[in-house]
Structure formats: C-alpha cells, structure tokens
Fold this sequence. Notes:
The longest helix is centred in the middle third of the chain and has 11 residues. 26% of the residues lie in helices and 24% in strands. It has a single domain, classed as 3-Layer(aba) Sandwich (Rossmann fold), CATH 3.40.50.150. Strand 6 and strand 7 form a beta hairpin. The protein is of the alpha/beta class and 196 residues long. The chain has 6 helices and 7 strands; from the N terminus they run αβαβααββαβαββ. Bound molecules: S-adenosylmethionine. The site of S-adenosylmethionine (SAM) has 21 residues, from strand 2.
Amino acid sequence: MAHKFDTDKLEKLNDPERKKLLDPDIIWETLKLEDPEILVDIGAGTGFFAVPFSRKMKNGKIYACDVSEEMVSWMKNNLSKEDLEKIVPLKTEESRVDLPDCIADLVYMINVYHELENPQMMLRETYRILKENGRTAVIDWKKEEHSFYSIPGPPLHRRVSKEIIKKELTDSGFDFISDLDILTHHSFIVGVKTLP
Ligand SMILES: C[S@@+](CC[C@H](N)C(=O)[O-])C[C@H]1O[C@@H](n2cnc3c(N)ncnc32)[C@H](O)[C@@H]1O
C-alpha cells in the first residue's frame, strides 16, 4: 500500500516557507489558463494551492478533492466563507473522483503522485473529467538526492521519476506531454486531452 501523508502533520502543509519551493503564483502563471471555469485539485490537503488559485479565477470553481476525510473537514471548517464560495471540498476515493465527464479545464496534483496506489487509474480518471483540450498537471518531488538536509520531502525510494510520470500520462491517453522544468526540486509535467 502506498504511503500517505500523515494528517497529524497537517499544519506543515500551511507553512508559508513552502512558497520558496512551490510558489503558487509562479505555478499559476506557467499554466497560462484563460478564464477557466472548473479546476480539480486532486489531493488538495488544506487548500494551500486551491485558495490562491481560486482567488485568481474570475467566475470559476475549484473542486478540492482529497481521499482523507480529515483534510476535507479541515478545509470545510477553516477556509473563509469567501473562499468556500469558489472552492468545493470533496471527499474522493483512491482512484475515483465523483465528478461528471468532460467538465474540467485543468486537473492538478501537487505532491500527491508519489502517494497514489494506482497512478494510471487516477490519470484515466483525470482524463475522463477533463474537457477536450483540458490538461492534467503533475507536480511532484524530483527523484534525486539533494544535499540540503533542510529541504523536506519523501525519501528517494518513494519518489517517481519524470520518465515514469510521462510514460503513465501517455499510456493514459494524454498527448503533447511537456516537461516544464521551472522548479528546482519538483518535476512539473503536463499532458493534454485531445480527443481521438
Ligand atoms: C503531501 S499532501 C499534499 C497536499 C497539497 N497538494 C499540498 O501540496 O499542499 C498529499 C495529499 O494527497 C492526499 N491523497 C493521497 N492519495 C490521494 C488520492 N488517491 N486521491 C486524493 N487525495 C489523495 C493526501 O490525503 C494528502 O492530503
């Protein structure tokens, strides 16, 4: 069974220091979304990314999905009323996201891929819920040792290489796989759903 984030350490996810490694503004700008209607955050945790992303959206909505009931309850109880007008916390299953087909402009997973039991089943699920030309973005720890012990992250053996993420996106039906090499310690891989 894949190792899951320890919900007792939930507050760690809200540490503003994380922005030095994963700046939501930089990620948002890189994605170049044009007035998106629906985003789906898989493994949203405490909404560390869903909150800043939702504030950049004019009218859209973000489904902040998590397999952990604690995370979903935390978002419902701690996000502001204004943020919850645009963010919908949603308890999901390991490889099943209970949303309709073809609704999302973007599905993203940040620091989640290495926790998935069956990444390809999840990728096929993200493909199902995306609109035509919608994209799935996978951002996760690079599979490399680093010499700075102050930098957190899962042990090397749990990390997934870029090559595997790209292959699993391709095998799940995604096209135009791009490797956005803009983050020092994270892979940032995007695939597009083009219809056959
Ligand atoms: C390390 S935390 C990252 C949270 C958030 N993305 C962030 O970076 O702040 C990983 C999260 O993914 C969730 N998770 C793990 N497997 C999942 C799955 N199959 N579907 C949805 N959420 C999952 C965990 O419960 C946890 O909240």
